[in-house]
Amino acid sequence: MSTGLLAVLSILPIAAVALFLVILRWPAKKAMPISYIVAVLLALFVWKVPGAQVAAASVNGLVVAATLLYIIFGAILLLNTLQESGAIRTIRQGFTDITPDRRVQVIIIAWLFGSFIEGSAGFGTPAAVAVPLLVGLGFPAMAAVVAGMVIQSTPVSFGAVGTPIMVGVNTGLSADEGIKQLAASMGYTDWTQFLYLIGSKVALLHAISGTLVPLFVVALMTRFFGKNKSWAEGLKIWKFALFAAFSMTIPYLIVAHVLGAEFPSMFGGLIGLAIVVTAAKKGFLMPKENEYWDFDKKENWNPEWTGAIEIEDVRSRHGEMSMVRAWTPYILIGLLLVLTRLKFLPFLGWLKSWTVSFENLFGTEITSSFQPLYLPGTIFILVSLITFFLHRMDVNSYKKAWKTSGRAIVGASTALVFTVPMVQVFINSGGGAAGYEQMPIVLAEGVAALAGSAWPFFSPFIGALGAFVAGSNTVSNMMFSLFQYGVSDRIGVDPTWVVALQAVGGAAGNMICVHNVVAASAVVGLVGQEGNVIRKTIFPMTYYALFAGSVGYSILYFGEKGFFNLGTLIAAAIAVAAIVIVNRAVKKAQPPVDYSPPV
């Protein structure tokens, strides 16, 4: 069978997702079973994968889905605990004291706090922490999910203390001894330093592309969830949005070059948070009092925006709670995530020492395992228990938090038990009697055959495809890093830059990843609207991958084609378009000047 036809067939499970979930707007619990069936039929009858391997991949998917549901439950439990204790009321008031402007609040929580949590824990944890916090502050559930997904871009490549680079790219490339020899010939006899080199290039591409992410977040929020449905109302605070972007990306870039790939997102988010909150309190670049932006009254919201989880205005039964006490659970979350992810501390080894493993499922090479103590869900539950005592909650309120959380988790389970197994069948489709590579590689090879020397433009989109189907930048890098390296070798360009483009695209793909959207939505009880979320996040994802690809092309062909090559022209066109759009939006948002003489 030809490469082109195989590539067309391999895209069918993804096309099923696009058709039923995004275009026809079916809920994930109905769309994903169809996608799973398509993947299984292709694996069995075209790729001729043994039935035992398909079954093993499906069971592995169920185990992964169970771990995701555990994380989601922990996040919901923490949110409900804070609501019942009265902490959410105090936190909401604290943000109102900084500013009641929702645009500023979403940048601080989603972009900065979310980046820190991503750097600490990764694996979708920012959505489990930042999204419910936004809902607790009074954001529509869908607005919170969209914001949480869009920021799953710039910090993702260095999430979970650098896992996508130090594990993903490492696993993808280290199996080829020729690459290690090349690294040594470049002076990188220490393989870790070679990974750091790639990481520094990833950070540069992210720092450039990520500049507009906070602006995307606020513009999407005001356009789709504002009373006036206006892009301009979001773009109007472009100065503050860019300030917040640079406050994170500049430290992020410096850390990547100085300390390596483990800490850019963690330190960038934390330093940016300190800078921006301090500046906001002092009124730097803040909207004027008569220009504060807020959502319309809740009774006027579209019912599709709201989730099943209702945030009530509960007071602490011990009077007004202090800001420090209210924020302590989130501080503990950040602290525990950091302490349990750093390799030089003993906690990582202790928590990973208990591994539940199902080896060689159905006689195949597929092994499923998880580490219960290491999962973020365990930390969420632990902090919830600590909060019970810290906030001096009564037993009935705490029982209510557990019961509410248990009911909320049911909605996500149906979608995830088909979404993740589909992904696993798709990924584990190699080694069949037909002799074809696994479906993602076949699809990438088809694109590479068409792209030729223009591959740097397509490289981030392949990374995004990997994250879209796998739900993980790390897995995308594992699947495609070696393939990307091989393509760069064939077209004669620096492979480290192409692998960096893969990692950047893999991060951008998290914005539209189905099971991340399902998980983030489930945390706030927004079930059945996954397609609506993806329709809103696909545009910033496309911008991110295209802009990064254009910058990468410009760098790779600078020596051969000069500065004014196609990549530079496209990147410049995107930058100019952004400037023009913001300028027009700001002018549109300005009140008309009254030139009539005073009466």
Low-confidence runs of at least 5 consecutive residues? 592-596
Q: Kindly report the average pLDDT value.
A: 88
Q: How are strands sequenced across the largest beta sheet?
A: 1-2
Write down how many β-strands occur, each being a DSSP E stretch of 2 or more residues: 2
Query: If you compute it from the alpha carbons, what radius of gyration comes out, rounded to the nearest whole angstrom?
Result: 24 Å
Structural class by sheet pairing and helices: mainly alpha
- Give, in order, the helices and strands: HHHHHHHHHHHHHHHHHEEHHHHHHHHHH
Quote the beta fraction. under 5%
Structure description:
The protein is mostly helical and 599 residues long. Helices cover 71% and strands 1% of the residues. The protein contains 27 helices and two strands. The protein has a two-stranded antiparallel ribbon. Helix 23 runs antiparallel to helix 25. The radius of gyration is 24 Å and the shape is globular.
Which terms summarize this structure?
single chain, 599 residues, mainly alpha, two-stranded antiparallel sheet, 27 helices, 2 strands
Entry summary:
The N and C termini lie far apart (83 Å). It contains 27 helices and two strands. The protein has helices at 3-10, 12-23, 28-45, 51-85, 87-98, 102-120, 125-136, 141-150, 159-174, 177-185, 191-209, 213-225, 231-235, 238-258, 264-281, 323-339, 347-352, 376-390, 395-427, 439-451, 455-470, 473-491, 495-508, 514-523, 530-556, 558-561, 566-589; strands spanning 356-358, 368-370.
